[in-house]
Amino acid sequence: MSEVGMSEVDMSEVDGSELAVRSLAKAFGGVRAVDGVSFDVGRGEFLAMIGPNGAGKSTCFNLINGQLRPDAGTIRFQGTLLNGLPPRAVCRLGIGRTFQVAATFGSMTVAENVQMALIANAGEIYRLWRPAAQRHRARALDLLAQVGMREAADRANRELAYGDIKRVELAIALAGEPRLLLMDEPTAGMAPGERHALIGLVKRLVAQTGISVLFTEHSMDVVFAYADRIIVLARGKLIADGDARAIRANPKVQEVYFGSGRTFAQADNADDANGGGR
Ligand code: ADP
Ligand code: MG
Predict the structure, then answer these.
(1) What is the position in ligand 1's atom list of the atom closest to the CA of 236?
(2) CATH class, 1-94+178-278 region
(3) Ligand 1 atom 27: residue of nearest CA
(4) How close is the Cα of 56 to the center of ligand 1, in Å?
(5) Summary mean pLDDT of the chain
(6) Closest listed residue to residue 174, CA positions, set 138, 142, 220
(7) Would you state the pLDDT for residue 223?
(8) 3-class secondary structure, 33
(9) Is-above-0.85 flag for pTM?
(10) What CA–CA distance (Å, rounded) separates 189 from 187?
(11) Ligand 2 ion local residues (Cβ < 5 A)
């Protein structure tokens, strides 16, 4: 880390970019999952990454959060080079991520799940957990209030509806006080109405807290309604970058998603008819 010069830090301050990804590449055997991808996430930006299945979105996320090592390219966060850092170090620098349902403990209460995340974040040890049931409780309740789950604080996690579990996952991610939050398919398996509610909630949190969010979302309807900007991946390459209007009208994007002749509106109706998930 000491190798990073001050001038690079200043550069990112000047252009308002939190995350700068340049010429990022990762192959699995012969498959170029991510193939020379460059993009920025601006401070306070709610940025959607879209693309068909297998486009390389999850691989991008895993390269950023340190789960995978890039073959080539650079990832800088607030000017600091992330290449080769393990996930814990990336997290400590302020990049959080949402985890799937399995990461929460069903028999614990909603508040306890969030308290555990706060305990982990503070670097405290788990065996001190039992005698300290009140530890971080006030902060946990605050976080639950932010995601609209304050009322459910003392219910067992396993009693919750699916959409509510997703809100708890969001509270757990926020417990780490990220400056950039990575959300890979946060609404997977949710009905269209719930997708709107959750992504709308995240968008409001972004506006309130000033954090940046990079997310993937299958429903175009939701992406177009809430994303500040959209980047599009196809076969490992970035093929478009713009606002909803520009992306909707982009012939390359249309081609990748639908071949010719169909529109995004038609595609969303088809998704909704078969439950929206993938
Ligand atoms: P997306 O998230 O956009 O659906 P992925 O990043 O999961 O796409 O996958 C991109 C490509 O890389 C796909 O062809 C996928 O099969 C391949 N891939 C992803 N992860 C691995 C892995 N761990 N080993 C081998 N191939 C992988
Ligand atoms: Mg994926």
Answers:
(1) 10
(2) alpha beta
(3) 28
(4) 6
(5) 86
(6) 142
(7) 97
(8) strand
(9) yes
(10) 6
(11) 57-58
